[in-house]
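Input (structure):
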């Protein structure tokens, strides 16, 4: 015979402290693996890459309306485990005015300023002809899981100064480190008690007295 079971449900702010913590854990587990929270960081990184002269490789993503969008090949894993990091695939060539443009875009970010300046200076010494191709290698996603091939775009056979090659490679890897730090910062913000609590309230989730989602 069908029967009715009555159950008392609670909104988040009605829970005891221990139950609230259990509800937060549920929400964090539910969000684990969702990339939506990082979309603003990836979009920002793509804009900065363009300023620095980095042409990010893209891959097609099929949308629910059957249209296709192309997302940048920025790979990452995190956080707080060995092997975590971020990298990208694409190519790099000199972007005129990048040092000024990055200061206009991110006036307080001295790390990006230094990266742009280092790339500008090494290009100046090489008549702005250096180019690099960046490919992902290995099973991890940190900056050293990349192969960065630097060459003279007008003379592939010219022997380049080792220090200049290192400057290009490390500058591009500095940007990969910057991407990872930005992703990590966003993750910490999204997983903070304050942000989790606000998201739970906005979605009006209901719980039992122990903080289990109803």
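Output (sequence):
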């Amino acid at each position: 015979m069908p029967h009715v079971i009555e159950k008392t449900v609670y909104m988040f702010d009605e829970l005891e402290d221990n139950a609230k913590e259990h509800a937060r854990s549920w929400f964090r587990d539910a969000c684990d693996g969702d990339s939506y929270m990082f979309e603003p960081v990836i979009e920002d990184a793509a804009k900065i890459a363009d300023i620095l002269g980095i042409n990010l490789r893209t891959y097609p993503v099929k949308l629910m309306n059957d249209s296709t969008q192309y997302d940048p090949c920025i790979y990452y894993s995190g956080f707080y485990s060995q092997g975590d990091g971020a990298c990208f695939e694409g190519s790099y060539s000199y972007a005129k005015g990048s040092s000024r443009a990055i200061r206009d875009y991110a006036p307080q970010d001295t790390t990006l300023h230094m990266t742009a300046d280092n790339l500008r200076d090494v290009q100046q010494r090489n008549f702005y002809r250096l180019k690099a191709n960046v490919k992902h290698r290995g099973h991890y996603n940190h900056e050293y899981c990349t192969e960065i091939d630097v060459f003279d775009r007008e003379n592939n056979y010219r022997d380049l100064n080792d220090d200049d090659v290192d400057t290009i490679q490390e500058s591009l890897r500095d940007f990969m480190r910057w991407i990872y730090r930005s992703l990590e910062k966003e993750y910490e913000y999204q997983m903070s008690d304050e942000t989790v609590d606000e998201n739970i309230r906005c979605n009006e989730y209901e719980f039992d007295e122990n903080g289990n989602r109803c």
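Notes: Residues 37-191 form one domain. The first helix runs from residue 17 to 31.
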